[in-house]
Design goal:
By secondary structure, the protein is an alpha+beta fold. The protein has a single domain (about 5-95, about 140-310, about 350-460), classed as Up-down Bundle (Outer membrane efflux proteins (OEP)). The protein has helices at about 5, 55-70, 70-90, 110-115, 145-210, 215-250, 280-285, 285-305, 350-420, 425-460; strands at about 95-110, 125-140, 310-325, 335-345. The radius of gyration is 38 Å and the shape is elongated.
């Protein structure tokens, strides 16, 4: 499954050139329990719009609205704009700067000073006009500015993957909130149905008390059961309300303007998880690709910090026209120019340059560890999600058996209680067992669905199917 990864890891190809650190990752050969490859390699790949696999039109509409309107995603897009602008600002150092300078001045000096000791009157007023272009350029001989630009560009790439991380988290949050809403509605239906059953039994007990075959204690016990069932309803109603509010926030709308019908978890189709998950997981998850881009930016910053120890060469030039009279400003004799070259070699900066280099190396090592952690965590997330899918599916299947048997026991006990062949305690026990089993089934199905959502999240969302390669028959 992951054999291709052991021979070539496209993620790190751009990171390991030169003196860049080696992530040195120990990659497993296969996921536990999913070593068998499918007959079709693409069968294990979840689609880009994986939320449609649950076959819920309302869920699809909610997710699409969240993807288009979520404020966290909008903020991530704004960070992309900032990162692109910063890359342009940093890249400006690779190009010369050119400025136009124009000035016009009129001055008058004191006549008593310019007249001299004889008291004569000299020329006291003059004009000064100039128009010039000035340019400066730093020769990037050691690659200092190119490294800074590369770091800024990689940071911009990381901001794009950060947006994908936020978008995936938003979609997962919306799906989970919707499923929690459905689960709360299912649990409400279970509680209300059991409330009706308990009310029916209470009426039956009261009839038997009137006939002298039941006591006040029997009535009180059933009334207590009825009260407990009523008390369980408000928290579930609160959960429904909170889930609707969470979905409103995710879609950037006020809760009063959000109308979600909901339904039942039984109407949700659980996608089938196929074996053969490919090794391209590392190239798919946006958080890993963000960590890779951040590490690449740190590598470039180290190169930039080293280059600051070396001399910098700057070329400057200025040329234009200067005259005291406007009509002679553009004549050849009014032209002037200045050319200069400068070299600056850092000698003593009080440890600033060495401190900056150590800072960038430390940052590089930090991001390297973050990258390693992201890769290892990705495998751990997938392993946990696969295990959760298997175990929650088994739990749901077994819990359905519990509900079926509990339903049979309650129906039989209610019938026999009407016939007077069993006591109230047995009936109450079977009633409570049925209610607990039904409520646990809803929670088991919710856990199963959320495990599938977690698997999609662990895989980095949806996957693009590779195009089919064809050969030219000519």
């Amino acid at each position: 499954m992951l054999q291709a990864f052991t021979t070539a890891l496209p993620l790190t190809g751009c990171l390991l050139a030169g003196n860049d650190p080696d992530p040195a990752l120990d990659v497993p050969a296969a996921y536990d329990g999913f070593s068998r490859r499918p007959a079709v390699a693409e069968a294990a790949l979840p689609p880009l719009d994986w939320w449609r696999e649950f076959r819920s039109h309302e869920l699809t509409a909610i997710v699409e609205e969240a993807r288009n309107s979520n404020l966290d995603i909008a903020a991530a897009v704004a960070r992309i704009v900032q990162a692109d602008a910063q890359a342009r600002i940093t890249g400006a150092a690779l190009l010369p700067t050119v400025d136009f300078n124009g000035s016009a001045s009129h001055s008058r000096s004191s006549q008593t000073v310019t007249g001299g000791a004889s008291g004569g009157i000299g020329r006291s007023e003059r004009d000064d006009l100039s128009a010039a272009l000035s340019a400066s350029y730093e020769i990037d001989f050691w690659g200092k500015n190119r490294a800074a630009l590369r770091a800024a560009e990689e940071s911009a790439v990381a901001s794009r993957f950060d947006r994908e991380v936020v978008a995936l988290s938003t979609v997962v949050s919306a799906a989970n909130a919707y499923f929690q809403l459905l689960a709360a509605q299912d649990r409400l239906r279970v509680a209300r149905n059991n409330l009706q059953s308990a009310s029916r039994i209470l009426d039956l007990i009261r009839q038997r008390r009137a006939a002298g075959t039941a006591s006040d204690l029997d009535v009180a016990q059933q009334e207590s059961t009825l009260a407990n069932l009523r008390a369980a309803i408000p928290p579930l109603e609160q959960t429904v309300k909170q889930s609707r509010t969470a979905l409103a926030i995710l879609t950037a709308r006020v809760p009063e303007h959000v109308h979600i019908r909901g339904g039942s978890l039984d109407a949700i189709t659980i996608p089938r998880v196929t074996p053969g998950l490919p090794s391209e997981l590392l190239a798919q998850r946006p958080d890993i690709r963000e960590a890779e881009a951040n590490l690449a930016a740190a590598n470039a910053n180290v190169v930039n910090a080293r280059a600051k120890f070396l001399p910098s060469i700057t070329l400057t030039g200025e040329g234009g026209y200067e005259s005291a009279v406007l009509k002679t400003l553009l004549r050849p004799e009014s032209a002037f120019y200045t050319l200069a070259a400068g070299l600056t070699q850092p000698v003593f900066h009080g440890g600033e340059l060495s401190g900056n280099l150590d800072l960038q190396k430390g940052r590089q090592d930090e991001l390297l560890q973050n990258y390693r952690k992201a890769v290892i965590s990705a495998f751990g997330d997938v392993e946990n999600a696969l295990d959760a899918v298997r175990r929650t599916a088994a739990r749901e299947r077994l819990q359905r058996d519990v509900v079926r048997y509990s339903r049979q026991a309650f129906d039989i006990s209610e019938q026999r209680f009407r016939e007077g062949t069993i006591d109230l305690i047995t009936l109450l026990q079977t009633q409570q067992t049925l209610y607990t089993a039904q409520d646990a089934l809803v929670q088991a199905r919710l856990a199963h669905i959320q495990a599938v959502v977690s698997l999609y999240q662990a895989l980095g969302g949806g996957w693009l199917t590779k195009p089919v390669e064809t050969t030219d028959a000519r």
